[in-house]
Amino acid sequence: MTLFSPQRVGALDLxxxxxxxxxxxxxxxxxxxxxxxxxxxxxxxxxxAGLIVSEATHISAETVxxxxxxxxxxxxxxxxxxxxxDAVHASGGRIFQQLFHLGRKADPALIPxxxxxxxxxxxxxxxxxxxPGGPKPFPAPRALERSEIPPLVEAFARAAANARRAGFDGVxxxxxxxxxxxxxxxxxxxxxxxxxxxxxxxxxRFLLEIxxxxxxxxxxxxxxxxxxxxxxxxxxQDTEPGRLLKHAATQLEKRAVAYIHLVEPAxxxxxxxxxxxxxxxxxxxxxxxxxxxxxxxxxxxxxxxTDLVAFGVGYxxxxxxxxxxxxxxxxxxxxxxTFYSGGAAGYTDYPALRPVTERA
Length: 360
Prior knowledge:
The chain is of the alpha/beta class.
């Protein structure tokens, strides 16, 4: 088994085990948060990936962050994303849309009607967010009332239905990186004493209700879930991440979701790895992500630690990453100054390899 072996993932047959990780690039239209023609070109350039997972996409107007991030809750956004998925499919690719809610990490100034960031508990993220006047520390969110949780679940389900209407092959639920679902999952951010807090079953309830609601809309075999179990710099952490992921994996096994996507860097020490716990409790495909190159990726595949490997920064500068991996060719170097700058520079203008020509 290599990176270039085919793999079944949910409802899809993938030609290889190389996944384009979700990468926010802030190229959406600032006012409407609709993806532009440039976004369609960007993803189509990368369609040789076995699976593309789109940038994290907002499920509602109240989850808003930096200028240029995209969303999937209006008809205009659905229509604009349809042009993206059409371009990817025309290029032979497959694409899931990653859905998320920022929770306590939303920008207060951008929430409509004077709203305020909400989270499972009134605990601020230990980080800053970008504003026109410079970075500001995140404020403490307002703890969600229990009555406010079902509408959030419904918003995820509507977004998933919108994603399918827009032509996405499935959705990835963003339960990682310190955003709302991850805030519910981890006891460092969730101090609730009701059904959505306490032990791992309570803290996982919000996620599992979202999984069930989305599966009811589009089928469980078109739903993936992403986790980042290791501590984050913003203070999102859990005292027993192995126990938490064992419970989550066991529950997702019962629901037969398409895959689990785990952020676990290649250099994670053996005794700190969570992937083996997931493998023991989930029989579906596992994707690992976090600083992998060809050698470390194929080692993980060969050792049975994963079924697929997601590449993040490598895909920013290398639209033809599959071919570069196949040929053992050098990778282009990404320009961090253009990661969120807007426009084609550093987005769609990275060069591809020259085609291999027949020898005379």
